[in-house]
From TrEMBL:
Cofactor: heme
Pathway, per record: Plant hormone biosynthesis; gibberellin biosynthesis; Hormone biosynthesis
Organism phylogeny: Eukaryota, Viridiplantae, Streptophyta, Embryophyta, Tracheophyta
PANTHER family (alphabetical): CYTOCHROME P450 26, ENT-KAURENOIC ACID OXIDASE 2
Main localisation: membrane
Highest taxon of source: Eukaryota
GO cellular component, one term: membrane
Organism: Sesamum alatum
Cellular compartments annotated: Membrane
UniProt GO MF annotations: ent-kaurenoic acid monooxygenase activity; heme binding; iron ion binding
Family: Belongs to the cytochrome P450 family.
CDD domains: CYP90-like
Record keywords, A-Z: Heme, Iron, Membrane, Metal-binding, Monooxygenase, Oxidoreductase, Transmembrane, Transmembrane helix
Protein name, per record: Ent-kaurenoic acid oxidase 1
Length: 496
């Protein structure tokens, strides 16, 4: 029997390739296991009670798959991957934003994490805290947070304050809509963000020059793109640009704070006019006052949150109304009824009328659910905690994944469908609707935001319509959900 040398060589080559493939697979497995080995080994026996999951690659963890999913136009695919691999467990171990973490997707678990202050504290990535401010609500202790929240929430959400701001908001909205109707083609989202920024600037700093407002609003745009980006401080990356924007923001706000302090020294009888005055006068039980850094970080946080969410949700609510004629007609009829029932001589909206906008409130809630402006908030375990049968180790980050809660088909049938009527006679259980977070860290400006949106939609529904240039414009999901063209279109007046 003879052997063909060519066949022998071919067999040997095949074996070498198979061996190389196996070695490559082993190397990949070793790399993907590195994070698990490094972080879980420290836990000892507790590691067996961790939720299922995957800590991803060394250093980058699961960030590439997260960014890939959200930039692909299919953001739900990120969590779907875990569900498909490990089942509907509600908690998954991951490595994100530089830390070993637990993603929480089940409503009950989200509620537990947000409300259990004994077990969880804010756990925002250091990069996010660096951008928004370590002295803002993101980085301060529970005691400091309670004091600052009490100080700032009432002037933003209190009945008296909202009544005062209502007139300014309405005047600004009416003027803006009239102006846009005469401008032709506009980026609707861009103009809305300018409007909501003007409103929050008025509440916190009374007024500033157009130039200052334009500078601040422009830098906030750059800041936001870096908040959920990977913390790569190299030119060309979003985080690097965001750090530069933060520096400029601080510089502008420092000049404003310094000028305000000088003015107050010269005239000690000046009546408090805005939130900056309240922050400068704030004093705790020990007589401690806020320094400039603390005031500026609070301003950076509030000015950012106070215009981004309102601007985006107002845009999406307008888009959804225009896209669903039946919803538009029902919401418009409600607003016309409110105007008809208005006492003779009354000019402008009242808080009582806004509270009567039952259907419009459902439109706003449905928009908040579908869009989920803040897709996640960050907490950190103060100690080992058991949640839904799994261990959350002390020091690990906890990512409360709002998108999964708001798209749960058991709570919201056909969850991707915009349907305000789903709220008729329906009140979600605690933890099942979290547009403004929950617990002691609930967004303090939630009432103000809904009132801003209601006032805008009231006047839009009565007198205007939106004509989009690119109704099929692709949607971008980071840092916030928006059309790629910023909702390019025209605002048309339909009545006089």
């Amino acid at each position: 029997m003879s052997l063909d040398c060519g066949e022998v060589a071919y067999d040997l080559e095949e074996e070498e390739l198979e061996l190389e493939f196996k070695l490559e697979e082993e190397n990949i497995w070793a790399l993907r296991s590195a994070n698990c080995w490094y972080y879980e080994k420290k836990l000892g026996e507790r590691r067996y009670d961790l939720p299922p999951g995957d800590l991803g690659w060394p250093f980058i963890g699961n960030m590439w798959s997260f960014l890939r999913a959200f930039k692909s136009g299919k953001p739900e695919s990120f969590i779907s991957t875990f569900v498909n691999r490990f089942g509907h467990t509600g908690l998954y171990k991951v490595h994100m934003f530089g830390n070993p973490s637990i993603i929480v997707t089940a409503a009950e678990a989200c509620r537990r994490v947000l409300t259990d202050d004994e077990s969880f504290k804010p756990g925002w990535p250091s990069s996010t805290a660096s951008l928004i401010g370590k002295k803002s609500f993101l980085g301060i202790s529970d005691e400091e947070h309670k004091w600052l929240r009490k100080l700032t929430a009432a002037p933003v959400n209190g009945h008296e304050a909202l009544s005062v701001y209502l007139k300014y908001i309405e005047e600004s909205v009416v003027a803006a809509l009239e102006k846009w109707a005469g401008m032709g083609q506009i980026e609707f989202l861009t103009e809305l963000r300018k409007l909501t920024f003007r409103i929050i600037m008025y509440i916190f700093m009374s007024s500033e020059s157009e130039h200052v407002m334009e500078v601040l609003e422009r830098e906030y745009t750059a800041l936001n793109y870096g908040v959920r980006a990977m913390a790569i401080n190299i030119p060309g990356f979003a985080y690097h640009s965001a750090l530069k924007a933060r520096k400029k923001l601080v510089g502008v706000l420092q000049a404003i704070v310094t000028e305000r302090r000088e003015r107050r020294k010269k005239n000690s009888q000046t009546v408090k006019k805005d939130m900056m005055d309240a922050l400068m006068d704030a004093e705790d039980e020990n007589g401690r006052r806020l320094n400039d850094e603390e005031i500026i970080d609070v301003l950076v946080m509030y000015l950012n949150a106070g215009h981004e969410s309102s601007g985006h949700i107002t845009m999406w609510a307008t888009v959804f109304l225009q896209k669903h004629p039946d919803v538009f007609r029902r919401a418009k009829a409600e607003q016309e009824e409110i105007v008809r029932n208005r006492p003779p001589g009354q000019k402008g909206l009242t808080l009582k009328e806004i509270r009567q906008m039952d259907y419009l409130s459902k439109v706003i809630d449905e928009t908040l659910r579908v869009i989920t402006f803040s897709l996640v908030v960050f907490r950190e375990a103060k100690k080992d905690v058991r949640v839904c049968g799994y261990i959350v180790p002390k020091g690990w980050k906890v990512l409360v994944w709002f998108r999964s809660v708001h798209f749960d088909p058991e709570t919201y049938p056909e969850p991707k469908t915009f349907d305000p009527s789903r709220w008729d006679g329906f009140t979600p259980k605690a933890g099942h609707f979290l547009p403004f977070g929950g617990g002691s860290r609930l967004c303090p400006g939630n009432d103000l935001a809904k009132i801003e949106i209601s006032i805008f939609l009231h006047h839009f529904l009565l007198n205007y319509e939106l004509e989009r240039c690119n109704p099929a414009s692709p949607v971008i999901y980071l840092p916030h959900t928006r059309p790629k063209d910023n909702c390019l279109g025209r605002i048309r007046r339909v009545s006089t």
